[in-house]
Amino acid sequence: MKKTLLLLLFITFHSYAQVGIGIINPQADLHIGGTTSTIRIESLNHTNQPVLNDGIKLAPAYVTANGDITISPSGYVVGGPAGSVAPLNFLLSYKNFIPDGAEGSRTVINNGLGITVVNGLVYTLPFTSPQSALIEVKYGITVALSATDFNTANVPLTDPPTYGTNFTGFSSRTFRLYFCIDLNNDGLSAAELSKRYGVKGQSYASGNQGSLGYAYMNSQGYANIPAGNHSLKFFGEVEDGVNKYTSVSFGSAQDYLKLRIYN
Asked: Which terminus of the chain has fewer CB atoms gathered within 10 Å of its CB, N or C?
Protein backbone atom coordinates (compact mmCIF):
# COMPACT_ATOMS: atom_id res chain seq x y z
CA MET A 1 0.00 0.00 0.00
CA LYS A 2 2.84 2.36 0.92
CA LYS A 3 4.69 1.63 -2.35
CA THR A 4 1.51 2.30 -4.33
CA LEU A 5 1.03 5.68 -2.65
CA LEU A 6 4.63 6.72 -3.33
CA LEU A 7 4.25 5.73 -6.97
CA LEU A 8 1.09 7.83 -7.34
CA LEU A 9 2.80 10.85 -5.79
CA PHE A 10 5.74 10.43 -8.18
CA ILE A 11 3.47 10.26 -11.23
CA THR A 12 1.40 13.26 -10.08
CA PHE A 13 4.50 15.39 -9.50
CA HIS A 14 6.01 14.66 -12.91
CA SER A 15 2.72 15.16 -14.76
CA TYR A 16 2.91 18.86 -13.86
CA ALA A 17 6.70 19.29 -14.14
CA GLN A 18 8.46 21.13 -16.94
CA VAL A 19 9.98 18.82 -19.54
CA GLY A 20 13.45 19.40 -20.92
CA ILE A 21 15.04 17.79 -23.97
CA GLY A 22 18.79 18.28 -24.11
CA ILE A 23 18.69 20.57 -21.09
CA ILE A 24 18.86 19.87 -17.34
CA ASN A 25 16.91 22.87 -16.06
CA PRO A 26 13.93 23.54 -18.40
CA GLN A 27 12.43 27.03 -18.27
CA ALA A 28 9.12 26.22 -19.97
CA ASP A 29 6.56 23.41 -20.10
CA LEU A 30 8.58 22.01 -23.00
CA HIS A 31 12.13 23.31 -23.39
CA ILE A 32 14.41 21.96 -26.12
CA GLY A 33 18.04 22.87 -25.52
CA GLY A 34 20.99 22.97 -27.90
CA THR A 35 22.04 25.55 -30.49
CA THR A 36 21.22 23.20 -33.40
CA SER A 37 18.00 21.66 -32.06
CA THR A 38 15.11 21.12 -34.47
CA ILE A 39 11.47 20.05 -34.32
CA ARG A 40 9.87 17.75 -36.89
CA ILE A 41 6.11 17.25 -37.33
CA GLU A 42 5.68 14.51 -39.91
CA SER A 43 1.98 15.21 -40.44
CA LEU A 44 3.00 18.54 -42.04
CA ASN A 45 5.73 17.22 -44.37
CA HIS A 46 5.56 16.99 -48.17
CA THR A 47 4.36 13.39 -48.13
CA ASN A 48 1.39 14.07 -45.86
CA GLN A 49 0.61 17.62 -47.06
CA PRO A 50 1.70 17.66 -50.74
CA VAL A 51 -0.62 20.52 -51.74
CA LEU A 52 0.38 23.11 -49.13
CA ASN A 53 3.95 21.78 -48.75
CA ASP A 54 5.42 21.13 -52.19
CA GLY A 55 8.79 20.07 -50.80
CA ILE A 56 10.60 22.96 -52.53
CA LYS A 57 9.29 26.24 -51.12
CA LEU A 58 9.04 26.88 -47.40
CA ALA A 59 5.55 26.18 -46.06
CA PRO A 60 4.48 28.86 -43.54
CA ALA A 61 3.00 27.59 -40.26
CA TYR A 62 -0.05 29.07 -38.53
CA VAL A 63 -1.47 28.75 -35.02
CA THR A 64 -5.20 28.14 -34.60
CA ALA A 65 -7.40 29.58 -31.84
CA ASN A 66 -6.83 26.33 -29.91
CA GLY A 67 -3.06 26.67 -30.21
CA ASP A 68 -2.71 23.92 -32.84
CA ILE A 69 0.09 24.32 -35.41
CA THR A 70 -1.10 23.97 -39.01
CA ILE A 71 -0.04 24.94 -42.54
CA SER A 72 -3.68 25.28 -43.65
CA PRO A 73 -4.87 28.74 -42.54
CA SER A 74 -8.51 29.44 -41.84
CA GLY A 75 -10.31 30.44 -45.03
CA TYR A 76 -7.69 28.94 -47.37
CA VAL A 77 -9.17 27.19 -50.40
CA VAL A 78 -6.90 25.03 -52.56
CA GLY A 79 -7.22 26.33 -56.10
CA GLY A 80 -9.85 28.78 -54.87
CA PRO A 81 -10.84 32.06 -56.52
CA ALA A 82 -8.98 35.33 -56.19
CA GLY A 83 -9.32 36.55 -52.64
CA SER A 84 -8.50 33.21 -51.03
CA VAL A 85 -6.03 33.52 -48.18
CA ALA A 86 -2.46 33.57 -49.49
CA PRO A 87 0.30 32.30 -47.20
CA LEU A 88 2.45 35.19 -45.97
CA ASN A 89 6.16 34.44 -45.80
CA PHE A 90 7.50 37.54 -44.11
CA LEU A 91 7.14 41.29 -43.80
CA LEU A 92 9.96 43.83 -43.93
CA SER A 93 9.16 47.23 -42.47
CA TYR A 94 11.45 50.26 -42.78
CA LYS A 95 10.56 53.40 -40.85
CA ASN A 96 12.02 56.56 -42.36
CA PHE A 97 13.92 54.49 -44.93
CA ILE A 98 15.33 57.58 -46.67
CA PRO A 99 17.81 59.04 -44.15
CA ASP A 100 17.29 62.56 -42.81
CA GLY A 101 19.92 64.96 -41.52
CA ALA A 102 22.03 67.37 -43.55
CA GLU A 103 20.72 68.18 -47.00
CA GLY A 104 23.20 65.84 -48.65
CA SER A 105 21.55 62.79 -47.02
CA ARG A 106 18.38 63.28 -49.05
CA THR A 107 17.85 63.32 -52.79
CA VAL A 108 17.36 66.66 -54.51
CA ILE A 109 16.21 66.76 -58.12
CA ASN A 110 16.43 70.14 -59.86
CA ASN A 111 14.47 71.04 -62.98
CA GLY A 112 16.37 73.97 -64.43
CA LEU A 113 15.52 76.67 -66.94
CA GLY A 114 14.99 75.43 -70.45
CA ILE A 115 13.99 71.94 -69.24
CA THR A 116 10.48 70.59 -68.75
CA VAL A 117 10.96 67.06 -67.33
CA VAL A 118 13.81 65.67 -65.20
CA ASN A 119 14.02 62.39 -63.30
CA GLY A 120 16.62 60.84 -61.02
CA LEU A 121 17.31 58.04 -58.57
CA VAL A 122 15.97 58.78 -55.07
CA TYR A 123 16.95 55.68 -53.11
CA THR A 124 18.01 52.02 -53.53
CA LEU A 125 16.88 49.33 -51.10
CA PRO A 126 18.37 45.81 -51.49
CA PHE A 127 16.43 42.76 -50.33
CA THR A 128 16.56 38.97 -50.62
CA SER A 129 13.76 36.59 -51.54
CA PRO A 130 14.35 32.93 -50.58
CA GLN A 131 11.99 31.72 -53.31
CA SER A 132 9.97 32.78 -56.33
CA ALA A 133 7.26 35.02 -54.94
CA LEU A 134 4.73 37.78 -55.36
CA ILE A 135 5.88 40.96 -53.61
CA GLU A 136 3.76 43.85 -52.36
CA VAL A 137 5.51 47.19 -51.82
CA LYS A 138 3.85 50.02 -49.89
CA TYR A 139 5.65 53.33 -49.43
CA GLY A 140 5.11 56.85 -48.15
CA ILE A 141 7.58 59.68 -48.87
CA THR A 142 7.60 63.35 -47.86
CA VAL A 143 8.51 65.97 -50.45
CA ALA A 144 9.58 69.63 -50.20
CA LEU A 145 9.61 72.15 -53.08
CA SER A 146 11.57 75.36 -53.63
CA ALA A 147 12.05 77.91 -56.39
CA THR A 148 15.83 77.78 -55.73
CA ASP A 149 18.29 74.89 -55.34
CA PHE A 150 17.84 73.00 -52.05
CA ASN A 151 21.48 71.89 -52.28
CA THR A 152 22.73 75.43 -51.64
CA ALA A 153 21.65 75.26 -47.98
CA ASN A 154 23.55 72.53 -46.13
CA VAL A 155 21.28 72.49 -43.08
CA PRO A 156 18.62 70.02 -41.90
CA LEU A 157 15.05 70.54 -43.02
CA THR A 158 12.61 71.46 -40.28
CA ASP A 159 8.84 71.28 -40.13
CA PRO A 160 7.88 73.60 -41.67
CA PRO A 161 11.06 74.22 -43.69
CA THR A 162 13.04 77.25 -42.57
CA TYR A 163 14.77 77.74 -45.90
CA GLY A 164 13.99 77.49 -49.56
CA THR A 165 12.28 80.03 -51.78
CA ASN A 166 8.57 80.54 -52.36
CA PHE A 167 7.23 80.27 -55.89
CA THR A 168 5.80 83.30 -57.64
CA GLY A 169 3.19 83.18 -60.33
CA PHE A 170 0.54 80.57 -60.98
CA SER A 171 2.57 78.05 -62.99
CA SER A 172 2.00 74.47 -61.81
CA ARG A 173 4.85 72.15 -60.79
CA THR A 174 4.26 68.39 -61.03
CA PHE A 175 6.29 65.74 -59.23
CA ARG A 176 6.03 61.96 -59.37
CA LEU A 177 7.43 58.90 -57.60
CA TYR A 178 7.73 55.29 -58.74
CA PHE A 179 10.01 52.32 -58.23
CA CYS A 180 11.67 49.78 -60.51
CA ILE A 181 12.87 46.30 -59.53
CA ASP A 182 16.50 45.45 -60.18
CA LEU A 183 16.38 41.65 -60.46
CA ASN A 184 19.60 39.97 -59.31
CA ASN A 185 20.84 43.39 -58.16
CA ASP A 186 23.07 43.72 -61.23
CA GLY A 187 21.87 47.07 -62.55
CA LEU A 188 18.62 47.97 -64.25
CA SER A 189 18.22 46.63 -67.76
CA ALA A 190 16.21 48.55 -70.34
CA ALA A 191 13.29 46.17 -69.75
CA GLU A 192 13.47 46.59 -65.96
CA LEU A 193 13.72 50.36 -66.27
CA SER A 194 10.62 50.45 -68.47
CA LYS A 195 8.46 48.79 -65.79
CA ARG A 196 7.33 51.46 -63.33
CA TYR A 197 5.54 50.30 -60.19
CA GLY A 198 3.57 52.27 -57.62
CA VAL A 199 3.45 55.46 -59.68
CA LYS A 200 2.10 58.46 -57.75
CA GLY A 201 2.02 62.10 -58.81
CA GLN A 202 0.99 65.45 -57.35
CA SER A 203 1.07 69.05 -58.50
CA TYR A 204 1.75 72.36 -56.76
CA ALA A 205 0.71 75.85 -57.71
CA SER A 206 0.32 79.11 -55.81
CA GLY A 207 -0.01 82.83 -56.22
CA ASN A 208 2.70 85.37 -55.41
CA GLN A 209 4.84 84.23 -52.40
CA GLY A 210 2.86 81.03 -51.76
CA SER A 211 4.06 78.92 -48.84
CA LEU A 212 6.78 76.44 -47.89
CA GLY A 213 5.89 73.04 -46.48
CA TYR A 214 5.86 69.31 -47.04
CA ALA A 215 3.80 67.32 -49.49
CA TYR A 216 3.18 63.65 -48.69
CA MET A 217 2.90 60.85 -51.24
CA ASN A 218 2.04 57.20 -50.75
CA SER A 219 1.38 54.34 -53.13
CA GLN A 220 1.86 50.61 -53.65
CA GLY A 221 2.79 48.10 -56.34
CA TYR A 222 2.95 44.35 -56.97
CA ALA A 223 5.30 42.17 -59.00
CA ASN A 224 6.43 38.57 -59.40
CA ILE A 225 10.11 37.94 -58.72
CA PRO A 226 12.44 34.92 -58.76
CA ALA A 227 14.48 33.76 -55.78
CA GLY A 228 17.70 35.71 -55.21
CA ASN A 229 19.16 39.08 -54.24
CA HIS A 230 17.30 42.03 -55.71
CA SER A 231 16.78 45.74 -55.04
CA LEU A 232 14.04 48.33 -55.21
CA LYS A 233 15.07 51.54 -56.94
CA PHE A 234 12.90 54.58 -56.25
CA PHE A 235 12.86 57.38 -58.82
CA GLY A 236 11.57 60.93 -58.66
CA GLU A 237 10.38 62.98 -61.61
CA VAL A 238 9.88 66.76 -61.72
CA GLU A 239 7.98 68.61 -64.45
CA ASP A 240 7.43 72.36 -64.91
CA GLY A 241 7.30 75.06 -67.57
CA VAL A 242 10.25 75.53 -69.90
CA ASN A 243 11.14 78.90 -68.32
CA LYS A 244 10.59 77.78 -64.69
CA TYR A 245 13.02 76.50 -62.05
CA THR A 246 11.91 73.85 -59.53
CA SER A 247 13.95 72.15 -56.82
CA VAL A 248 12.41 69.10 -55.13
CA SER A 249 13.77 67.30 -52.07
CA PHE A 250 12.51 63.70 -51.77
CA GLY A 251 12.59 62.07 -48.34
CA SER A 252 12.63 65.38 -46.51
CA ALA A 253 10.98 64.22 -43.26
CA GLN A 254 9.29 61.01 -42.10
CA ASP A 255 8.99 58.19 -44.65
CA TYR A 256 8.07 54.52 -44.53
CA LEU A 257 8.33 51.40 -46.65
CA LYS A 258 6.73 47.97 -46.14
CA LEU A 259 7.62 44.93 -48.22
CA ARG A 260 5.53 41.75 -48.11
CA ILE A 261 6.71 38.60 -49.83
CA TYR A 262 4.13 35.90 -50.64
CA ASN A 263 4.83 32.40 -51.90
From this structure: N
- CA 236 vs. chain centroid, Å, equals 18
Give the Cα separation of 28 and 61 in Å (integer).
Answer: 21
Q: Find out whether 174 and 203 touch, Cβ atoms under 8 Å.
A: yes
DSSP string, 106-126: SEEEEE-TT-SEEEEEEEEEE
Alpha-carbon span 200 to 121, nearest angstrom = 15
Question: 230 with 191: CB under 8 angstroms?
Answer: no
Residue 149's φ and ψ, nearest 5 degrees, are -65, 120
Question: Which CATH number describes the domain made up of 90-262?
Answer: 2.60.120
- CA-CA distance, 25 to 240, in Å (whole number)? 70
Q: Profile the chain (263 residues) by mean pLDDT over runs of 10 residues.
A: 46 63 88 89 89 78 83 61 50 76 65 89 88 90 85 57 69 91 95 95 75 82 92 94 87 85 76
Tell the burial category of 35 from Cβ atoms under 10 Å away from its Cβ (0-12, 13-18, 19+): exposed
Mark residue 96 as left, alpha or beta (left: phi above 0; alpha: psi -120 to 50; beta: remaining): left
CA angle 36, 40, 41 (to 5 degrees): 160
Angle at 108 between CA 105 and CA 114, to 5 degrees: 160
The answer, yes or no, to whether the previous bond of 130 is cis (omega within 30 of 0) is no
Residue ranges of domains in the chain: 28-84, 90-262
